[in-house]
Amino acid sequence: MTPTLEFQDTIAVLNLGTDENRFSPDWLDTVDGLLDAALTQAQALVTVASGKFYSNGLDLDWLMTHADRADWYVARVQALLSRLLTFGLPTVAAINGHAFGAGAMLAVAHDYRVMRSDRGYLCFPEVDINIPFTPGMASLIQSKVAPQTAVTAMTTGHRYGAEAAVAAGLADRAATEHEVLSAAVDLARPLVGKDSGTLGAIKATMFSATAAALAA
């Protein structure tokens, strides 16, 4: 299933898909278009997926067959991460399953995260698959968690379950499979009503160094 957008009152719910939800160019284009719609039609954004995965991040199969476009592709992924980081609506990731690599970075780029408690890991496996972080991706993670958490998450490839993610500051709440989306919507509901231009400007200032690194 390709990404879809639904609305719960004034809250947009962006479903990333039903499979590993890797960042293919088509997937990135679809998500960008749905974010455009959310920004004009909603007052908060929740992202979620269906099934075993939230997102497994980079589409490595596409990269292997389009090595000559690697720089373009990485820039495209980082543009999405930067957009979520500075989005003009309150954002909550409902992490329904595994979030690995750039998929975990996508979750971290949100304002808040609710993680499924009974299944799924949040993990940055780059150290184990020999893919160094770009400066922008490293800055994104480091901008959202305490320094020692960043060291552990980025240099060991540790897999965080929900309770450990909450304790480490990588997630804000844990919820069961059937409650993870509703918990994220409940978290977003009191945050609606902010002016999107003002909110986006505040986030752009807060995360200016990370946004600049992601754009480099």
Automatic annotation (TrEMBL):
One matching Pfam family: ECH_1
Molecular functions per Gene Ontology: delta(3)-delta(2)-enoyl-CoA isomerase activity
Biological process annotations from GO: fatty acid beta-oxidation
Assigned keywords, A-Z: Lipid metabolism
InterPro entries: ClpP/crotonase-like_dom_sf, Enoyl-CoA_hydra/iso
Protein name per the record: Enoyl-CoA hydratase
